[in-house]
Amino acid sequence: MTTKPWGPSTLAVHGGETGPGSGPLEPPLVLASAFGFASAEEAAGAFRGENDALIYGRWGNPTVSHLESRVAALEVRHRRV
Fold this sequence. Notes:
Elements: H1 8-14, H2 40-47, H3 62-80
Helix pairs in contact: 1-3
């Protein structure tokens, strides 16, 4: 069975989803502005860009990443039209 491509409204709601799972239907809002580290060395590595650790909310957090993936899905769709 073939499925037709999602339209813009469906992409706005479901774009960037990784697939079905047992987690929440919508991602939780991350309201933190700062994130902790297990050690000073881990924090230093994060600030040097050596790992993907979250550092500061304005530089990104899981909520922002989720929104970015949905907007990216819409942009890809827009370029195909």
